[in-house]
Amino acid sequence: MRWPHIEPHLITRSLVPENQESPIHFFSLAAVTPEGFFYIRNHFSYPMLSEESFAVTIDGEVRNSLTFHYRDLLSMPSKEIAVTLECSGNKRARFKLKVYGIQWEEGAISQGVWKGVPLRDLLNYAGLKPTAREVVFAGRDCGTRTDMAGTYPYARSLPLDKALHPDTLVAYELNGQPIPYKHGYPLRLIVPQWYGMASVKWLRSITVLDARFTGPFQVVDYVYEPGTDSDDGKSPVTLVHVNSTIQFPMDRSLLDTGTIQICGIAWTGTGFITDVELSLNGGESWVSADVHRLPNQPYAWILWTYRWDVSQQGEYAILCRARDSYGNIQPAAASWNKKGYGYNAISSINVKVE
């Protein structure tokens, strides 16, 4: 077995398959996450690429089954958008009642500027039949699972309305360069507002179905299961929850009295971030942080800052909560579920001022 090349700037959570998170507290959180800091989430070993990898097929409930080659896509009208990609298991380690799965801290999130062809343009070329209901995307990565026999590709579906959204892309560039191999080269689906499991890497095929897709990464994984002993209340993981992270200072920091710049990011899958509030006394009172957003980039995280003038020594609990334009606000406690998806409780750190 060949061991993967480990990116030196990332925090390794598993080697085979390779899963690494961004050191989110140690680099500037600008519009673009550098390639060496971009988090990596895999379910299987990396696929071997061949000439066939530079094409994607469309079939199923369409009038014309088509194959689009990489060079074809490069010549088509394109779109470029900044998108925050967050693993649905981000912050899983924060659940009080522990759950199985990769114990991500706060770094299973990154942001890049993706360029590609709107998926709806490709579907329009193929011609959707009236029976079309869902669209399935299969990657070139595949392997076995521990809970069922057989070999499976990584495959996910989108409902038709999301597949036809003008900003759902078949992407071929990240940050002005061909998508890096570890992030889905040569073609990757990009689904703004949804958790990263929807943005299928190493895209191989697009299949339009007249029924609900029941692949294991659709109905077994990436499903909220709030009950410990039953399937009651199950629902699919889709939109990103409103969330935030305190980048600086770090938890358990020792700080000097004076002016301290508190900063971080906030993001959501519904609308846009409208407010970020901080509590410097463990939640007794709240103050508003300054919000800095990228112009004309509705799917990008926002940066927030707050100047804290502190003259009294002691220990402080600093809390952060974000609110979006749909009225969603980070809760005091995240909704627990068996597989630890969608953690978005109020962010908190403890610091000591000396």
From TrEMBL:
The keyword Thylakoid does not apply. It comes from the Bacteria. Its cofactor is Mo-molybdopterin. Residues 240-352 form the Moybdenum cofactor oxidoreductase dimerisation domain. Pfam families: Mo-co_dimer, Oxidored_molyb. Keywords: Metal-binding, Molybdenum, Oxidoreductase. The keyword Oxidoreductase applies. Residues 43-215 form the Oxidoreductase molybdopterin-binding domain. This is Sulfite oxidase. The lineage of its organism: Bacteria, Bacillati, Bacillota, Bacilli, Bacillales.
